[in-house]
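Hi U.,

Before I forget, here's the chain from the pilot set. I'm dumping it here mostly so it's searchable later in email.
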Amino acid sequence: MVITPKILQVTYVFLKAFEPFQDMPPAHDVQFKINRCDENRGYFHQGGGSKEYLIMVSARCINHMDSLVKVMSHEMLHMKQYIDDTETEDVVHNKEFTALGQALCLEMGWDPGLF
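Structure:
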């Protein structure tokens, strides 16, 4: 599977149909990029140049739709926490992130240990 910014955008729009993402910004407010990083499957950053938000996915790490949906969900949780101002300084995955991730995994039938 070749991942493109358009595929990232469509995946984001699909996931917005599910809790806790229903109130997320529209896809046109998010910049979607592909990188070739070996260390991180995905990345969220506030301020993606001309857009307010940036979600980036590694083409080296993600080669299947199943993986892409999970990685996009993970980065969208980071984005949600940024928007809701519920991040914890110096903590990548705080208690709220873990709880949201667990609920999402239950909803989607995913293994929370892999999320």
